[in-house]
Design goal:
- About 30% of the residues lie in helices and about 20% in strands.
- With about 270 residues, it is α/β, with parallel strands linked by helices.
- It has two domains: about 170 residues, 3-Layer(aba) Sandwich (Aminopeptidase); about 100 residues, Rossmann fold (3-Layer(aba) Sandwich), CATH 3.40.50.
- Helix 2 crosses helix 4.
- The chain is globular.
Amino acid sequence: MNFIVLYSKKDIAGINIAEELKKHYLPQIPIIELQKDSIVSENIDKDDRLKNFDFIIFATRHKSEKGGKTLSIHAPGNWRNADFGGKAGKICPTSALVIKYLFQKLKENAEKEKSDYPVTLECTHHGPLIEKPCCFIELGSSEEQWQDKKTAAIIAKTISDLQDFENWKDKNKKQMKIAIGIGGPHYCPNFNKIQLSQTSDIAISHIIPEYCLPLNESMLKEAIEKTKEPTNIFLLDWKGCGKSEERQKVIEIINKLDLKYERTEKIKK
């Protein structure tokens, strides 16, 4: 897969990840510095320097009010309002297989380095809005962690591992079911278990969290359209889909689209 890494000159964590990439993985991994913050670099995929690449990785900081250590991966986009870049109700294309592969590699590399940073998926959120498949890989969640070059090196190694993605895909794509996640909190504990499981045959692309419910048909259609691989199934974090009437609404919309769903607690992990 022909991929490229983008980072912002305004982002300490992104700079540190890029420095580790440049130190160990140039020239085989192309890297471009952005002038704006990544989340507001709208339509950056129209830049001529990116025209020959088919997947974009944004290497960035992760920020939260609680702070603390986090290594995270997610697809960008906005299910509702666009408070942090992008466009309201619009999400970016992504690949369920790439996200699964990177997430498993991130966990593996963190464990090899005996890192105490938790590894987690995040639901689909924030900008920018672009048309090329992409994902964010982030180091968080405060200044102390953004400056952590040892952990930035874990992310750099994970990005470099994507060079072997095609071999992994050739071995695994036939048995993989492509899923979209619905429900649960921002950091997706039930989806994490499925995405990391060596026995699960499910790869998850976009995730719609409970706080973005109530669900509507256009959200599901957007998720299907913006998943590179054909969607096979919806995964429901059942307890994280609101009250019974909200859960029933989710099922009704899925049935209307003539698609299948499973509850996360029923999936072998």
